[in-house]
Amino acid sequence: MSIEYASRREGRILYVVGALLLLHLTLISIQVEDTSGTLLLKRWSLTVSAPILNSTARLSRGAANLWTGYVWLRGAREENERLQQAVRQLSLRNSSLEQMREENSRLQKLLAFEAVLPYQTLGARVIGRAPNFLAGTLYLDRGSSDGVRADLPVVSDSGIVGRTILVTLHNCQVQLITNADASAGVIVERTRSPGVARGTENPLLDLNYINNTEDVNPGDIIVTSGLDGIYPKGLPVGRVVDSEKGKAGFRTVKVEPSADMMRIEEVLVLFGTLKPGAAVPAPLPGR
Q1: Whether pTM exceeds 0.85
Q2: Residue 5 confidence (pLDDT) above 70
């Protein structure tokens, strides 16, 4: 019993002596300098803490870089969205300006054509077209309140389009010259050969009643004769694209209309009254 107690006591004494020695060495190291004049304790402390400090610095830099990258990517994405929105707006604006430019060009051509016509005219816009089973008609934004009535010629800057057939207060329906029920008195401009242009529900017109003996060739210009009571004389109708001798003494002649019926957007409605100071044209039958 006394031996075991003595052993425990000696052990505690050794612990105390070891602690005192460590404290003594620590106190000495605080005062001891190396050859460069640096305290040994500071050098030891730096040696022990350096790995920890380096790791902490790397983690801090990584976190900072990650946050900076996130913020930059988010800002770049938002900037990209703003740029895309700006591009879309500019594209729409450019498209609108282009549409206005094209419309202005069409209207200038129409006004130039109107200037050479001796008749009073009324500008109109195409607001609708008939479905396929009623192909050959279109609708204008002018009606009886604007002075429009049935059987008035409708023209574009390229030539005749058709005639009004149904009129309401603010709108009217136009039968295109390509309609199967449409026709117009015409002449071949070069030879003055008379005939009748008829619609076929196809892009081309038939030129009827041209004798086989007549000299009508592809490229010949066809204009109105003024003999049908609808269209004044001399308006462009189309150009001959095919001419062959046919049966029963008449040629088979195909005419491409001057006006593009599928792309017409603005037209002129012709009235029978002359412009002030205009020369009196040859009398039109039925007028």
Answers
A1: no
A2: no
